[in-house]
Amino acid sequence: MNSIALAFLVGTITLVIACVAAYILLTRQGRQHSLHLRYERGRLKNENEARVVAETALAFKDKLYRILFAHTTDMVFMFGLTEDGLPGPFTEVNVVACEVLGYNREKLLELSPLEIQTSEAPSTVRGYTRSELVTLSDDEIMDREAAFAVRPVRQLMERILAEGHAEYTSAFLSHNGDHIPVEIYAHAFELEGKPMIVMTAHDIAEREKAKHDLQESERRFEDFFSHSPVGAALYDGQGKLLNVNQACLKMFGAPDAVQFAKFNPFANPFIPERVRRALEQRDTAQFEMSIDFDQARTDGLYVTGRRGMGHLDVLMLNLGMDRDYVPRGHLLQVQDITTRVQTEEALQRSERQLQQAQKMEALGTLAGGIAHDFNNILTPILGYTEIMLHGMDDTEPNVEFLKEIHKASYRAKDLVQQILTFSRQNEGENKPVHLIPIVKEVVKLQKSSVPDGVTINCVIKTDQDVVISNPTQIHQVIMNLCTNAGYAMKETGGELDVHLTDFVIGGRSQSEFPDLEPGRFLRIMVKDTGSGMDAATIERIFEPFYTTKPSGEGTGMGLAVVHGIVAGLKGSLTVNSTLNEGTTFHVVLPVVEQLAEDENADTETPQGRGDKAVLFVDDERAVAQMAMKMLRALDYAPTLASSGEEALALLKESPGAFDLVITDLTMPGIGGRELARAVSEIDPNLPVILCTGYNQNLSEAESLHDGFADVIQKPIAMRQLADAIATAIARAG
Asked: Which of 83, 248, 367, 607 could form a disulfide with 231 if both were Cys (CB 3.0 to 4.6 A apart)?
């Protein structure tokens, strides 16, 4: 191999080595460049993604801001500040601001806060009074007033910038001139290096209205509380008095709130037992309270100007608890029902009196119903006894027995008359009567019948003792009162005082007997020192058949009869009694100036005339048979008829055959009244006497109107029958 070839080979190898080295270098550099490019692409990608994320977040925040800005219920304004520190035109407003103020968006963005906020015109311009303003020009006045008006605004803006925020109230002026009260929240921030303020304004018109309404309500409540006719008092949770109105003070008679505060409405002696526990536990309770104001004053409960008893309707209302579970207190409401209670008590008394009157009426109806049949039974007993006694001497062996029968029959007759007297169906025959002899007679009789240990005292301090009455009735009154007084002292003994005095009703004494007319009266006082009565017993003592005596010792008719007799005599009966101290009855009767009739007049039974024929009409055979025998005993010629039809037939068959007709009142078919009218048509001069066992309160005028010459009561007494026949025949003659 030559050197040339060798050199070529070396050169070729060197070239190859150089190319390989270059290739390796280029390959390495390409790889490094590729790595750099890949890094740059990754960095740029990351930066782009971060930018996208930031832009997305910004867009989201902007969207969120727009949504909040547009959809908040408050007005939102954004504005900057001018060089002199005053608010500039709005840079942003929301829809609510436009709607509330009545501007469109473009117009509102032309305005500033100074132009929508109201301000009162100042009464003075700084340095000048209103009297001095007349010397200034209009421009000077406007500049000074403007400077005076904007100064507080500038100070407010400075405070917002210094503190970063502010909260205050103001008022906006809408496009149509309405004033809108607002509560403003202002926040300061920077935008592109310039101070900005965002202002949120909340319409507080409703709140102000509610506040005003609350104040007005409180004022009305205070007016109502102060001037209400219903008494009211407020207490806190501990029962301390907070307020009380005048009506409440008046009802309790307290001069002021200080004295009323001494009265504890939750615990005092006048609270009814049924609500006492509820009030002690501070529960709500409504009740009626009767206050003895004299006792309240005596016990030192509080100072009161009221006297006597008062009745209050009370509501103690628990006001519950507040949100912190603290008791709110109590409201006391009071109404004075004293007049209502007094009226109700008077009505109850009237009702009791009406019930008493109804009982009397019922008893009278009962008495009238049984009197006829009872007297028909008594008539033959009494009549036959009198007939037998009329024809017997006192020396005959059976006279004593007949007299006892006669006496018992009269007692039975008197018993019926007592019932009729009580029921006021039988007023009896009243005439002027001296009371002194009757009082002395009763006292004399009582001295022998009162229980051992009872002393009777009789005091008479009058000589004017004539009253219009019936001696038997007066005797019954005094006897019943004395008998009851003696019974009340039968265990303990004591004194029985019977006083008879006269007095004059008029002036002050009128109040003691309000139902009596002024004039002169007699008072019969029966006083004992016995067991006395409680109020409940006094309420019922005049009721028929009411008695406190054991069974068999009293009928309960005594005081009822006394009451009926006194009422019938136009008098008054009152009673005062205290348990374990005694009882006093007062019987008051009007005095008359007439002379009393001679009670000792001749009582001999007149004899009849055999030539006088009497037609006796009665459907009761036993009564008719007895009457026939009694008429024969009186020496009259009797004829019997068992009905009105039979009597008329006899009168028509034998005109002029009878000198007198005596008829029963109630008979089957033609009754006594119809018969009397028929007799007057047949013979107007023929007298008719009504004989009945049922009293009809027939006066003399009524008897004459019905065609009767006289009225006699069954059971028939011989003396009564004889007098009636003799008088009727004499008048007819």
From this structure: 248
Residues 397-406: what's their mean pLDDT?
78
The CA angle 412-413-418, to the nearest 5 degrees, is 95
Per-residue pLDDT, averaged over 473-481, amounts to 83
| Residue that the structure tokens 């340095």 belong to | 127
Q: Which helix (H) or strand (E) holds 645?
A: helix 644-653
Q: Which among 134, 227, 120, 95 has a CA at the least distance from the CA of 179?
A: 120
How are beta strands 613-617 and 660-663 bridged, if at all? parallel
Q: Under a CB-based contact definition with an 8 Å cutoff, are residues 464 and 502 in contact?
A: yes
422-438 average pLDDT score? 68
Q: In Å, what is the CA distance from 239 to each residue of 137, 246, 256, 280, 327?
A: 68, 20, 18, 11, 10
- With contact defined as beta carbons under 8 Å apart, do 577 and 415 qualify? no
Q: How far is CA 538 from CA 86, 107, 533, in A?
A: 97, 97, 6
Is residue 143 very low, low, confident or very high in pLDDT (cuts 50, 70, 90)? Answer: low
User: Structural domains in the chain?
Assistant: 70-208 (3.30.450.20), 228-336 (3.30.450.20), 354-393+602-733 (3.40.50.2300), 427-590 (3.30.565.10)
Return d(Cα 653, Cα 657) in angstroms, integer: 9
- Secondary element (H or E) of residue 291: strand 285-292
The amino acid that residue 401 corresponds to is: F
Provide the percentage of residues in the chain whose pLDDT is more than 90.
6
CA proximity to 491, closest of 532, 536, 430, 551: 532
Alpha-carbon distance of 46 to 628, in angstroms, equals 155
CA 374 to chain centre: 49
Amino acid at 326: V
Task: Specify the pTM.
Answer: 0.42
Residue 683 sits at φ, ψ, to 5 deg, of -145, 95
- H/E element, 669: none
